[in-house]
TrEMBL record:
<protein>
    <recommendedName>
        <fullName>Glutathione-dependent peroxiredoxin</fullName>
        <ecNumber>1.11.1.27</ecNumber>
    </recommendedName>
</protein>
<dbReference type="Pfam" id="PF08534">
    <property type="entry name" value="Redoxin"/>
</dbReference>
<feature type="active site" description="Cysteine sulfenic acid (-SOH) intermediate">
    <location>
        <position position="56"/>
    </location>
</feature>
<dbReference type="InterPro" id="IPR013766">
    <property type="entry name" value="Thioredoxin_domain"/>
</dbReference>
<keyword id="KW-0676">Redox-active center</keyword>
<comment type="similarity">
    <text>Belongs to the peroxiredoxin family. Prx5 subfamily.</text>
</comment>
<dbReference type="InterPro" id="IPR037944">
    <property type="entry name" value="PRX5-like"/>
</dbReference>
<dbReference type="GO" id="GO:0005737">
    <property type="term" value="C:cytoplasm"/>
</dbReference>
<keyword id="KW-0575">Peroxidase</keyword>
<dbReference type="GO" id="GO:0034599">
    <property type="term" value="P:cellular response to oxidative stress"/>
</dbReference>
<keyword id="KW-0049">Antioxidant</keyword>
<dbReference type="GO" id="GO:0008379">
    <property type="term" value="F:thioredoxin peroxidase activity"/>
</dbReference>
<dbReference type="InterPro" id="IPR013740">
    <property type="entry name" value="Redoxin"/>
</dbReference>
<keyword id="KW-0560">Oxidoreductase</keyword>
<dbReference type="InterPro" id="IPR036249">
    <property type="entry name" value="Thioredoxin-like_sf"/>
</dbReference>
<feature type="domain" description="Thioredoxin">
    <location>
        <begin position="1"/>
        <end position="152"/>
    </location>
</feature>
<dbReference type="GO" id="GO:0045454">
    <property type="term" value="P:cell redox homeostasis"/>
</dbReference>
Length: 180
């Protein structure tokens, strides 16, 4: 993704709790657009190969959650985690992680990820099409900084993780502030 480029305009099918629905499972569909998430805000978006996978669940997502206050101090309004998983899976993952700060975005059909140029095959793991791991600082819908793991490829044997870690992005934000 080229710095300065606008993120794609897509509609995400989310599920939100609504007591008015009643019954034992009071959730309903809520369409959210790229504009809803990105317009008028400076945010971090990070994208990973799958909900509940080990690196994502043990390091990347919980570390973004823990460091949310530090990101806020650096002028970040929101932190979003996106994955090619449906809203039911993403909600279950969020619940299991007790998230308060990071918002999960379900890209179940992979449309956003494909239009970002980050969709890769993970058939070697029985996953189908998923996201290559990356993160970005997105300012009012435009990519301000891009953090992509090395080795973008289909059916990659390894799952590189470092460049898109919250620690690395925080470091970049802090050094940018010092240089300003
Ligand atoms: C992981 O996050 O550890 C992981 C991601 C994709 C496939 C397998 C593991």
């Amino acid at each position: 993704m080229i710095v300065g480029r606008k993120v794609p305009s897509v509609t995400f099918r989310t599920r939100i709790r609504d007591e008015a629905v009643g019954g034992p499972n009071p959730y309903r569909w809520q369409d959210m657009t790229s504009a809803d998430y990105f317009a008028g805000k400076r945010v971090i978006l990070f994208s990973l190969p799958g909900a509940f996978t080990p690196t994502c669940s043990t390091y990347q997502l919980p570390d973004f959650e823990k460091l949310a206050g530090e990101f806020k101090a650096q002028g970040i309004d929101a932190i979003y985690c996106i994955s090619v998983n449906d809203a039911f899976v993403m909600n279950a993952w969020g619940k299991s992680q007790n998230l308060e700060n990071v918002k999960l975005i379900p890209d179940g059909s992979g449309e956003f990820t494909r239009k970002m140029g980050m969709l890769v095959a993970k058939d070697n793991l029985g996953f189908g099409m998923r996201s290559w791991r990356y993160a970005a600082i997105i300012n009012d819908g435009a990519v301000e900084q891009w953090f992509e793991e090395e080795g973008y490829s289909d059916n990659c044997d390894s799952d590189p993780y470092g460049v898109s870690s919250p620690q690395n992005i925080l470091e970049a934000l802090k050094s940018e502030k010092l240089a300003a």
